[in-house]
Structure formats: C-alpha cells, structure tokens
C-alpha cells in the first residue's frame, strides 16, 4: 500500500471503511516537528467533506477506480436506465445515486460515472446542458427595464429564471452547477 506522501488529487482512498475522493493534498514540514500530509477529501457515499491529517509514513489504501461515459435512456420510478455506448449494455442506477442530477438528464444525454470496485458511486454532468422550455409566461410589452427575468419550466421539470424575450418551445443552455440560464442554444 502507498504511503500518505503518494496520495494525489483525484484518487479514491478508503478512510474509516468508506470511499473518499481526494480533492486536495499538501505536504507540510513544520519547524522541528515531524512531516505530515494534510488531505481535503469528500465521502462518496454521503457527500460530506472533511480535512484529515496523516503522518507521512502512514499507509493508505487507494481503491481502484474507473470512469465510464454513459448515455441516459429513460427513467422508471426509482431507477434510471443508462446505455454504455461501447457495449450497448443497459445499466440501471437507483434514484438515490442520481439525486438532483435528474433535473439535467435528457434522452441520449451523456454523463460520466465513477466506478469504485465495479460499483457506481457518483455521476458527473457536463458543465452545461441544452433543455427545451415547456411552460413560460409571455413578457409584458413595454417592460424594458434591464435584466428583468421570468420563471420558465423546462422539459425535465426544472424551473429557471430567463429573460423576458425567451418564449415557450425554445432551446436554452443551462448551467449544471447552479441551474442558471446561460443563453439560447
């Protein structure tokens, strides 16, 4: 097993029996004390972030990981079906794993799935997605104050604030980080 000095950003390690994604590492050697490694990591099961200090000689178990690009097919109650474009195999993931990413999933939309020990643990979306507006009120004629926004319901059920000139049926680009309107598609 590698020592704490060998742990790098992006690796998944086992800490307290749970998989944790390493987000940041710093090797420190303060004055007359022993060297240590400060690791900022996030629990992949619960999403909680924490800082942990390891002695530079501690051994840490690094878990084998795999990234797969999957295409969203359909949702059925508590499961979401994805297709592996290489093998054409259908992979079903539970709604608990999908979480709020369901607001950005459209047919044939690509997502990156992180597998740890051949089990899917997290889903990563692209930075933005293109979605269709299914419901939006018309803008009031003459309301030309700058930056006036109105709510618009998208095909996935997500509601975002858009400028008044955007109409029902249009395609818009939405940020997957905060769900904000980015522009027309």
Summarize the SSE layout with pairings:
Blueprint: E1 12-15, E2 18-28, E3 36-43, E4 49-55, E5 61-63, E6 65-76, E7 79-83, E8 90-94, H1 95-98, E9 110-116, E10 119-124, E11 128-136, E12 149-154, E13 159-163, E14 171-175, E15 181-184
Antiparallel strand pairs: 1-2, 1-5, 2-3, 3-4, 6-7, 6-9, 7-8, 9-10, 11-12, 11-14, 12-13, 14-15
Keywords for this entry:
185 residues, mainly beta, OB fold (Dihydrolipoamide Acetyltransferase, E2P), 3 domains, 5-stranded antiparallel beta sheet, 15 strands, 2% helix, 52% strand
Helix content: under 10%
Kindly report the average pLDDT value.
88
Contiguous low-pLDDT stretches (5 residues minimum) are: none
Number of helices: 1
Top CATH class of the largest domain: Mainly Beta
Number of strands: 15
Q: Give the percentage of residues in beta strands.
A: over 45%
Protein described:
This protein has 185 residues and is an all-beta fold. The chain has 3 domains: 4-63, Roll (SH3 type barrels), CATH 2.30.30.30; 65-124, Nucleic acid-binding proteins (OB fold (Dihydrolipoamide Acetyltransferase, E2P), Beta Barrel), CATH 2.40.50; 128-184, Nucleic acid-binding proteins (OB fold (Dihydrolipoamide Acetyltransferase, E2P)). It has one helix spanning 95-98; strands at residues 12-15, 18-28, 36-43, 49-55, 61-63, 65-76, 79-83, 90-94, 110-116, 119-124, 128-136, 149-154, 159-163, 171-175, 181-184. It has a 5-stranded antiparallel sheet with strand order 4-3-2-1-5, with no helix packed on it. A 5-stranded antiparallel sheet has the order 8-7-6-9-10. It has a 5-stranded antiparallel sheet with strand order 13-12-11-14-15, with no helix packed on it. The longest helix is centred in the middle third of the chain and has 4 residues, at 95-98.
